[in-house]
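In this section we walk through a basic example: taking a raw amino acid sequence and producing a predicted 3D structure, encoded as discrete structure tokens. The instruction is simple. Fold the sequence below.
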Amino acid sequence: METTSIPIKLTQIFYSPTERRLRAGWRLLVHFFIMLVIMIIAGLCLGLILFRGFTQNWYLLFSELIAFIGVTASVYLARRVLDHRPFSSLGLTFSREAFFDLLFGISLAGLLMGTVYTAEWGFGWLTFQGFSWEFSPLSSVISSIFMMLILFILVGWTEELLFRGYQMQNLADGLNLTWGVGISSVMFAAFHLANPNISWNAVVGLVAAGFFLAFGYVRTRQLWLSIGLHIGWNFFEGSIFGYPVSGLNDPILLIRQTVQGPKLLTGGAFGPEAGIIILPALSLGALAIYLYTQRRYSKILSQNLKAKPG
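The resulting token sequence is shown next.
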């Protein structure tokens, strides 16, 4: 009896007998390797088909398309094969509510970034130089902004599906939601460590942004609000208001401006995420999400209480 109990305990390190699947940590590890393999294959295939000497914007779009394919395909496979759950259970139910969550998230992000811009201009930390059509042909401005919108849609979907979707929710399964939000937010910040002009301020700001984006999922149990926030944040930050997006610069922006305020407050060359100014913006955004989701969150809590035994 003693000899047979040892392998049973060893298998339980990897396998959950109650859930009849790999434990959360191993699922995340296996998914990571699946994702890498698919990205390598997608990169080779797309590179052979599409590569013609890309400009910066086309290179960014090409790179993000590889990430989109790798993350989406790997998460779908891992969710079905490793997790034994449907893909939609990550918070991807299509509904009228999902459309409004996307719209609200994009609009709120634009409002918050506009508030950051107005505050920096009001404090004298920012100088407005003009609109891009004053320096470049209007057709180039429109095509560039449209291309960046497509890029940021891919980024919003890919990063939210990976960090607030598969990683956070599997961590929540293995630990709890609080740890899931915290660890996935740190992983989200670590994902940007290779970006230009990264600093400790930027890392702290990105962790805070991870918590903010996760709040949309926590309040709705759907990813659509978080996806909308992510798309809107990047698009309005970079293509509209002319800031670097996590250290990356777009050559053609709607508004041309120069930030000369204190780097600690404005974020400098990395963008607002590296500045203290981002914290009140995220706080205002969290309050708006709280109010927007108040009725729905009450329903979620009541459903969870009914689901508990006894």
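Looking at the output, two observations stand out. The two ends are 37 Å apart (CA to CA). The mean pLDDT is 90. In the next section we compare this with other chains.
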